[in-house]
Structure formats: structure tokens, C-alpha cells
Specification:
This protein has 178 residues and is mainly alpha-helical. The chain has a domain of 93 residues: Glutathione S-transferase Yfyf (Class Pi), Chain A, domain 2 (Up-down Bundle), CATH 1.20.1050.10. Helix content is 61%, strand content 7%. It contains 8 helices and 3 strands, in the order αβββααααααα. Strand 1 and strand 2 form a beta hairpin. Helix 1 packs parallel to helix 2, helix 1 packs antiparallel against helix 8 and helix 4 crosses helix 7. The two termini are 19 Å apart.
């Protein structure tokens, strides 16, 4: 499950020493964090925000009321609009994102946040499938994406994402996905 891999990568990036125990629920395989001292936390966004707070990294959630709202907005956008989107929805999302990123380096504010991490994960499958000519239509998304590929903050994410992509390509070539 990609969401569980993302959360595992986030844990490593945050330097959380003790790995958490996860499961999934429902047809969409929504991640669930099993906690020893409290009820389980359900959903990618909920769990990711909890991990950032647990690691005492509140800046990843935004450094002002406005940037916190923008981080939440993009985290929700990721799970509601990008995850499992159709090709047509993907084009719309890339157009929206391209317009939004016109004058921005980061998704929210002036620093790297969870919005960057999870939008990076969310658009990765959309970007890698684009032809060069198509990428030119989304120059701001490509710039933002390339910036985060080169960023230290995405190093752990990239490694895990690369492994996922290799497995996906292998499965696609072996006929598991059409």
C-alpha cells in the first residue's frame, strides 16, 4: 500500500526511532495508526499530522495560521483529488497546480511542509507518465517537482518512491496492470 510506504518514509525523515504499527481499513485501504495509549488514528492526513507533532516538527504543518490552513488544504486535495484519479482528472489537477505554483517554490509559505511531501508523492505517478511535450505544458509543476527532487527533504521519499516505481514498472511489464 502506497500510503503506508509514505508514512514509513515520513517516519524515517522525521527521525522517529520506534516505528509505528499500521494497518489499513476498507476497500480503499485507508491507513490506520494503531496506538498503545489512545484510539487508532485513521487517514493519511490525520496520521501524517500526528507524526509531525510527535516528532516535534510543527513547522512541517505550517508556521502561521494561514500556512497551516494552506498545508491542510493541499493535504486534503491530495487524498480527495489525486489519489485514484482518472487521466482526465489528472490533467485538470496538473493545470490547477501549474497555475497555483506560478509564483511559488513551496506549496505553503516559504518553507518545505507536509504539503510538499504528500503532493510530491501524489503527482509523481502523473509526472513520470508525461511525454516531454506534455511536461512543457506544466512548466511550474515541473519546476516545483524538480526542485523537490533535488532537495534533501525529499531524499528518503525519493529512495522509497524509486523502489515503488521499480516494482510498479515490473508489475506493469509482466501484465499485472494494463
Amino acid at each position: 500500500n502506497m500510503a503506508l510506504r509514505e508514512l514509513s518514509s515520513l517516519e524515517k525523515y522525521l527521525g522517529l526511532k520506534k516505528p509505528n504499527k499500521y494497518s489499513t481499513q476498507g476497500e480503499k485501504k485507508v491507513p490506520v495508526l494503531q496506538r498503545a495509549n489512545g484510539p487508532p488514528l485513521v487517514g493519511l492526513v490525520t496520521v501524517a499530522c500526528h507524526l509531525a507533532k510527535d516528532a516535534k516538527r510543527p513547522e512541517l504543518l505550517g508556521d502561521s495560521a494561514e500556512s497551516r490552513a494552506v498545508v491542510q488544504q493541499w493535504l486534503e486535495y491530495r487524498v480527495t483529488k489525486l489519489d485514484g484519479c482518472t487521466k482526465e482528472d489528472a490533467k485538470t489537477a496538473l493545470k490547477d497546480l501549474n497555475l497555483y505554483l506560478q509564483d511559488k517554490v513551496y506549496m505553503a509559505g516559504n518553507q518545505f511542509t507536509l504539503a510538499d511531501t504528500f503532493m510530491f508523492y501524489g503527482i509523481h505517478p502523473l509526472i513520470v507518465d508525461l511525454a516531454v511535450q506534455e511536461k512543457e505544458q506544466y512548466v511550474n509543476v515541473t519546476r516545483w517537482f524538480d526542485h523537490h527532487v533535488e532537495s534533501k527533504a525529499c531524499e528518503t521519499i525519493q529512495l522509497n518512491l524509486l523502489c515503488c516505481c521499480v516494482v510498479f514498472v515490473f508489475l506493469r511489464l509482466s501484465g499485472c496492470f494494463q
